[in-house]
Amino acid sequence: MAQTSSHGGAGEGTRRDFLELVSWATLGVGTLVALWPFVDSLNPSMEVLATASTELDLEPIQEGQRVTIMWRGKPVFVAHRTQQEIEAARQVRLDELRDPEPDEERAPRPEWLIVVGICTHLGCVPLGNRTGEPRGEWGGWFCPCHGSHYDTAGRIRKGPAPRNLEVPPYTFQTDTLVRIG
Predict the structure, then answer these.
(1) Of the listed 7, 80, 121, 146, which one is catalytic?
(2) Residue 54 and residue 67 in contact, taking contact as beta carbons nearer than 8 Å
(3) Given pLDDT bands bounded at 50, 70 and 90, which one contains residue 124?
(4) Is 146 a catalytic residue?
């Protein structure tokens, strides 16, 4: 007569291994499911993704006109510069500037200047983007809070601001469409 044992049969190790594998797999999947809300919360919100870049149609902006758009919660000044503004910006000697940057680097397409409209001194929004607002001694922008004057290339010329107005990253999608960000 054949003896059978209740312990250690040939199929028992395989069954135990299978149960252990299922237990560990369930634990792993459960942990991932529990952690997913935390990991997902680290992603940028839909509002941030929506403002990560913005597009602007330049066609309606007339020469000499300036507009303000919002990008990442900041005002961005877009100026359709006149030939006189371009020439004034390009004739400035770099050694006269506190933060020397050639106009050609700030405005690769000379007729369009795009800068973040926040004064680099204390974060105020300079005047000069609307018709009738003071534009400072160099015809660019003027921050009345502490008297910073910027030229037509957005470069600091006078006052306490330490740096030029920031040029955001942007690319021209077409001749009349620009993507900022």
Answers:
(1) 146
(2) no
(3) confident
(4) yes
Q: What are the sequence ranges of the domains in the chain?
A: 1-43, 49-180
d(CA 142, CA 133): 9
Amino acid code (one letter) for 99: D
Element spanning 67, H or E: strand 66-71
- pLDDT of 16-32, one tens digit each? 888 888 899 999 888 88
Give the burial string for 42-67 (b: 16+ CB within 10 Å, else e): eeeeeeeeeeeebebebeebeeeebe
Sheet holding 148-151, edge to edge: 139-143, 148-151, 156-158
Q: What is the pLDDT of residue 69?
A: 93
**CATH number assigned to the domain covering 49-180:** 2.102.10.10
Q: How far apart are CA 151 and CA 91, in angstroms?
A: 11
DSSP 94: G
Question: What whole-number percentage of the chain has pLDDT above 90?
Answer: 57
Strands 139-143 and 66-71: unpaired
Question: Distance between CA atoms of 129 and 86, rounded to whole angstroms?
Answer: 16
- Tokens 């660019």 correspond to 140
Here the tokens at position 127 are 């005047």
In 3D, which of 106, 84, 83 has the Cα closest to residue 156?
A: 106
